[in-house]
Fold these 2 entries.
Entry 1:
Amino acid sequence: MLEIKNLSFDVTDDKGQKQIIQNLNLSVDEGKFVVITGPNGSGKSTLAKLIAGIEKPSGGQIFFDGKDITGCSITDRANLGISFALQQPVRFKGITVLDLLRLAAKKRLTVGEACNYLAEVGLCAKDYVNREVNASLSGGELKRIEIATVLARGTRLSIFDEPEAGIDLWSFQSLIKVFRHMRDTIHGSILIISHQERILDIADEIVVLAEGGIRSRGTKEEIMPELMRSADVARSCSKIEEGGL
Amino acid sequence: MALDEIQLRLLQEIADLHTVPEGAYNIRSNSALAGRNTTANIDIVSKPDGTGIDIHIKPGTKKESVHIPVVLSESGLKETVYNDFYIGEDSDVVIVAGCGIHNCGVQDSEHDGVHRFFVGKNAKIKYVEKHYGEGDGTGKRILNPVTEVTMEEGSAMEMEMVQIKGVDSTVRTTKATLAAGASLVVRERLMTHGTQRAESIYTTDLNGDGARADVVSRSVAKDQSYQRFDSRITGNAACTGHTECDAIIMDDARILAVPQLEANNIDAALIHEAAIGKIAGEQIIKLMTLGLTEQEAEEQIVNGFLK
């Protein structure tokens, strides 16, 4: 359903031009739960933003259900069936959780319907539907509301950029349940950018990015042992080693 | 009472009235009385010199409302009206004022309302004032309301001041004096566009121990419009005061926020906050990922902010 061909993304800063994504090719099949992982700076979040249309590629193409969407706006892609949960959810003064869920669902959800989406992300709806999506909400609460907006959209492709970021351990337990439930019930594909082993553990497929390209991809049985062996994960801190611990 | 379609629409905009209101009311249309109703507890009388009305609310009046809308649909009208509200002790009432101007002519239309409130001991009132302007004439729609509030011990007033569209020029002046234990809450919502100018000047004097004031403005300035928010709280006793201006600036608009505090007593606790900024890019992006266009996203953000 999603096909990425020779995708590149460059940025120019003080040090000159830098390639964040280099000739990347990737396809995500119908109904798959795919996790993209890799070290910091490997281009994971950039790739997610390129798919959602938030960033424009320097080269290459993106196809969604066979249609070339490379030139499409964020809005067009959203309406074609791509959802995106931001790593750092946005706050809005005056817009309530119910307003946001209604905008996401593109219909006047009843409070009961909104409650169902909030319950799925572990929020007690009566405490939240009328709350403003503003600074009074904690990072974890915002994150769950962000995920609820994606559930309310129910699109064919849902992208989550580091859903675990900013979530405490207790909330993380319920987050895993949310994703397990999504994997079992959703009629579309899910693409998650994550470092978390427990999210990797429920993936149909894991894609490892490094230096702007795909280092490896496969099932978790194929990829997890490799990841655990890799220098990024296994190497101890050099200072600890020097200290003889 | 006969009101034409334009006047009825103006009434709906400023007072959410679809028809003649229940309870006490005084409707002024094109500088003349268009309807009045009094109740056992609320009396409305014209001032002998014809410059306005006096509203008397008997002590202990509970759960009643007074509507005093003004509509102007003739171009070129200029008027100044003095309305005095005497709110009896221990009463609990809602007062809805407002002015709607439809100007499709070339001459300016102007309504300057001077409202004075004398709020009795332990009385509680909610005051809603909405401004609205429309009409495609080149004549300006001008409103300069003055509100003076004298609050006795233990009284409470909540003021909702709304001006969302269509008024070319406004200078809103509000002065409040609070005795011990009195409480004032002001919520202003303002949106200006085109080349409109809107100035809000609030002066709040907290004169008694335990007096409290919270004066908050949320505004959006679009196009080439100009806004000035000037709010001064003076603490003359052991009191608490907070004033805040939170503004979204768009296009080529200009906003000046001047919050001021003056403490004349060691136990006066006063705070001011002012923030002006454009709509954050990530807010627009988030709403676009939900399928809204950039323009729709902007509208939602502004509507939410001013809600």
Note: Chain B has a mean pLDDT of 91.
Entry 2:
Amino acid sequence: MTMIFGVPLAVFMGQLLLGLINGAFYALLSLGLAVIFGLLKIVNFAHGAMYMLGAFATLLGMRYLGINYWAALLLAPLFVGLLGMLIERVLLRRIGHLDHLYGLLLTFGLALIFEGTLVNFFGVSGARYPTPEALQGGYQTGFMFLPKYRAWVLLAALVVCFATWYIIERTRLGAYLRAGTENPALMQAFGVNVPLLVTLTYGFGVALAAFAGVLAAPLYPVSPTMGSNLLIVVFAVVVIGGMGSILGAIVTGLAMGLIEGLTKVYYPEAANTVIFLVMILVLLLRPAGLFGKEA
Amino acid sequence: MTFIKKTLASSVALAVTAAMATAAQAEISDGEIRIGYLADMSGTYRDLAGPGGLEALRMAVEDFGGSVNGAPIQVFSADDRNSADVGANTVREWIDTRNVDMVAGLVASSVTIAVTRVLEENDGFGIVSASAASSITNEHCTPNHIHWVYDTYPLANGTAQAVVQQGGDTWFMLTADYAFGHALEGDVTRVVEENGGQIVGGVRHPFPTDDFSSYILQAQGSGAKIIGLANAGADTVNAINTASQFGVVEAGQQLAGLLVFLNDVHAMGLDATQGLLLTTGWYWNMDDEAREWAERYYERVGRMPTMVQAGIYSSTTHYLQAVEATGSDDPQTVREHMMRQPIHDFFARNGRLREDGRMVHDMYLARVKSPEESTHEWDLYEILTTIPAEEAYRPLSESQCKLVQN
């Protein structure tokens, strides 16, 4: 058998693929954060809670309203997106002129409220969401058994990531958005409704998190704390990619998934820390992040 | 003269009587039994003890009549947030300002070890119901606490031995990378090797871990017949779920969960957990006595009790009985009385409290039912065998506890 640094090739390839799938989650979540920070300058600490709410909306929608997985892929992000817009309108807008720290504290507080409320009702053990029937089972790829559902997660996440990148960087709407955050007064003078754009952007950013939540529901137990565990890693990914860089968030997310996957083979004890080591290195060598522009 | 003598004599008599009366009352300090419940009320371990354990404690107090020898029983609680500092400080405050008589609950082993030190310094009393580490009554034993429900020793003994005897003689260990995981891994390795099995590989994963796919893939690659899970709570749940997604059981490997609670199995569902072997100190549906109590609990809480929650009721009741019988809440008096009484109730069978503070009782090897076998939401285990109390736990001859003469 071919070996790579003492690990059989088949195992090595399998780990790379799994790393890529985890990376797709990181990419999806850090993309939402990057959009919100890049365009609105809000450090959205409620992002993990929004991811969790997406998963919960999926679970409860099935349990009480009979909404199936495919419908939830659309409805859960819509619901969480609307909630996000409400939060932006009622709360975040009022502190927009203050230091970033206030937005960070406000969103962190909101995250704690959402988590605490759900812990009160559902406990922390989490509930299981069944894998949709069409995606049960898996493929024997020659080097590993790949569950169909994981293949679907990778595909869906990549499509959504690149669609988002395309809209923001390559379309007229995206151009308005970028211009609106660069110079809101001028855009408003041109007759563009900037406050509405801001609300929609925040709603879209958290909807991306909720979409990741729907994808995660059949993979991990749906529990109120699922988001807070992931949030810190995702923030590290955004810092490595460069705060606010859209493409940076996507590429870094995938790359960190791969690096973490390889760490799990060669030195599993460090799997939870390796991303932070990379973050420290990047902050030392390129403080603006791999894809960020120097201020 | 006579008058003075009489007066003197009677006042002396009066003083003696008064002193005796005070002494009798002082047996129960402050004229109240104060029980403090310390547990993780909001984090990872909430569902196995948490608010449900507090309700079990309240049930025990109510069933006892709410008072002991006329002294009312007061219950209060706090969230330790799985932090040893928070736990130790809370108990110190309870001792200083509320004169707590007994501390119940006690979940994360790290919190428990910190709290028992405080109890020993202040001559308090604690009953540990939820912690796993067997060191709590071994190198960390004190005269001021006892350990009720289970510990890592019978977990390894019960599950690992049964699995090896059924032909599962090659193991891959998936271990939580901290003290509890290492201890459990050590115990399992000893039991597997003693029974003629072999550990062929293992991974120590960070605590906590969400994504187990990489480790499951490594376990699949190892070719071991058994994947041993030396972790707990959410980590075990995640590992089992992932194994189910990757078709581990279908491909011929078996999982051995070394610390699995009823709420974990309930959360994962039978599809993912069927066939899993586990060791438990109690199961709500194991016989009529257990079932009767569990159904009363269910009516109040809306969930079936875990072994920990049942153990909290059982240990509190035994504590109150000892206070009633001795008329005292002095830790050593109560403890000595509890050690003399055999323990046999809906929870503990053939139980006795040893001098190291370990309450040994029958343990059970169980198998998780398949969805077809299960008749309702909480019909989750089939009890396979009983592990007798005296075989299940670490023998006193191997004890390092300072209270045991070896």
Note: The domain at 19-285 of chain A is CATH 1.10.3470 (ABC transporter involved in vitamin B12 uptake, BtuC).
